[in-house]
Amino acid sequence: xxxxxxxxxxxxxxxxxxxxxxxxxxxxxxxxxxxxxxxxxxxxxxxxxxxxxxxxxxxxxxxxxxxxxxxxxxxxxxxxxxxxxxxxxxxxxxxxxxxxxxxxxxxxxxxxxxxxxxxxx
Length: 121
Known about the structure:
Layout: H1 13-29, H2 40-59, H3 64-91, H4 96-120
């Protein structure tokens, strides 16, 4: 198993924080203009949900190598989220404080993913 002290992906702080980020992003996208409900909002939601999903799937795999691979996919999805949040800020699609909260959570998730990957390599 990839992690001996972790019984479930739900025990991983990075997964918990990624869930918090997902909830914050869903709330953020509720502020978007109606014309963006099926554009950037959908793309952002898919990317953010991919982060905890890949952490969970990776932790459930048989080897540490597979776990690292899925953590790297989660890291890539988080980079997508950061790029999309930058666009949202630039386009003025939501409240700046809400965007800042999501950006802060995303940066924290990035640090946690990088740390976890480094500890497993």
